[in-house]
Amino acid sequence: MKENSICATRDLIQKKRIKVSEVLNNCLEIISRTEPKIGALLSVQEEQSRTLAMEMDRKGPDSEKPLWGIPLTIKDVICTKDAPTTCGSRILGNFTPCYDATLVSRLRRAGAIILGKTNMDEFAMGSSTENSAMQQTRNPWDLTRVPGGSSGGSAASTAAGQALGSIGTDTGGSIRQPASFCGVTGLKPTYGRVSRFGLVAFGSSLDQAGPIACNAADCAALLNVISGHDPLDSTSADLPVPDYAGSLALRNDLKGLKVGLPEQYWEGGMSPEVDSVCRAALEQIRSAGAETVQVQLPHSPHAVAAYYIIAMAEASSNLARYDGVRYGVRDDTARELPDMYCKTRSLALGEEVQRRIMIGTYVLSAGYYDAYYKKAAQVRRLIYHDFVQAFDACHLLCSPVVPFTAFHLGEKIEDPLQMYLMDIFTASLNLAGLPGMTIPAGLGRETGMPVGIQLMGPAFSEKLILQTAHVLEPYLPSLPRPAALNE
Ligand code: GLN
Questions:
Q1: Which of 62, 79, 160, 459 has the most CB atoms around its CB within 10 Å?
Q2: How far apart are CA 211 and CA 446, in angstroms?
Q3: Has residue 1 got a pLDDT over 60?
Q4: What kind and span of H or E run contains 37?
Q5: Are 141 and 450 in contact (CB under 8 A)?
Q6: Could you give the C-alpha distances from 150 to 71, 72, 126, 172, 456, in angstroms and in order?
Q7: What is the pTM of this model?
Q8: Is 75 a catalytic residue?
Q9: How many Å lie between the centroid of ligand 1 and the Cα of residue 129?
Q10: In which band, very low, low, confident or very high, does the pLDDT at 219 lie, cut at 50, 70 and 90?
Q11: Residues 33, 245: contact at Cβ < 8 Å?
Q12: Annotation says 150 is catalytic
């Protein structure tokens, strides 16, 4: 998938070896060929993109703009001016924001073309994109399987080459897990690294946007642009942004790097094929010069429980604004206000979203707050301390991303608890607010589906994570084109 890389394409455009319109046409051609099969996109901004590409070609390349002419897709939970932003929900089915999220305006300012919005689980709640109220997205490697979620549309669209990269969001694993299922690279930055202004809130203390692309260099190029302090988001970090892309060349091997292997993650019931791909990747980490050491994250078995209490509590509060008054859809048959709220929310919010609002309201209620929410908040702190201690003994941690490869459509959707367990290796990082990245590590020998490994680091260690991933890439098997797209 190298030919789809952001960095290579940007260089060709800058050297005038290819026009922005040609790059865009290629993406549009791939969309028309693959979209009927994978259903990754909720909207395509074709006309705006064509006009912009022609204008850019007329002006000629601007070397100051690091993403000049690069077509990207954006998860439909991120606000885009004059383009629908539905969050995969009927309740926002008719919502078009009048402003761009900060990260979107930064991408546009850097010269990127926002080509389309990607499918997702409703309000980013899910692990398979099957909770979208709009359509089903299929995995480009096997159309009978899910792309993962909740950023499944972004991962599938990137794997298929519909755009050169995408921006997803990760509240409990939603960048890293679909990236692993679709064989692409995805980075969840440190909480506060990327502005959340214009990102529709799910779990405000957990949500973070980040890049999904073909390789580490492309993720670095995207992260360079979207990172940084934003006065419109009081939780965004007022820290300088390192030159992630420029610093990749500074490291040629992993000598001197200590990589911790959390025992609880490596003994955590992976399928045999995931286990063997991940262990082979560890060998390569050692071949590249790193030392591996075993570390403990003793509270990680409680991460999924704590995550679901906190995420649902925050969601119940954040989603109170969809009441039929201020946004989107309203049921007009009701005569009284409470009845209108009730009918609108019953009609226009999906089953999983309603389940979470109810559980979230319950754990915040006066009688149960101490037993559930407060306890989960305490466990969250312990999980954070586990990481702090682990990083005393190593620079980065390495683990599997998901215990299994992509499962079949319909296989887990009737069993929410099974679906929640998909987050076992990813959710603790969100609870701790730390950065993590999925790197494709090979194909499972039973299913033939992609398997990723996860690198995790201390707060604001994205530079080291990206450098490590960049060094590792040539050591890991390079994936062919997703098979299902050739049929
Ligand atoms: N699968 C998790 C959930 O359903 C994570 C979702 C996310 O990261 N947005 O909550």
A1: 160
A2: 29
A3: no
A4: helix 20-38
A5: yes
A6: 21, 18, 5, 9, 20
A7: 0.97
A8: yes
A9: 10
A10: very high
A11: no
A12: yes
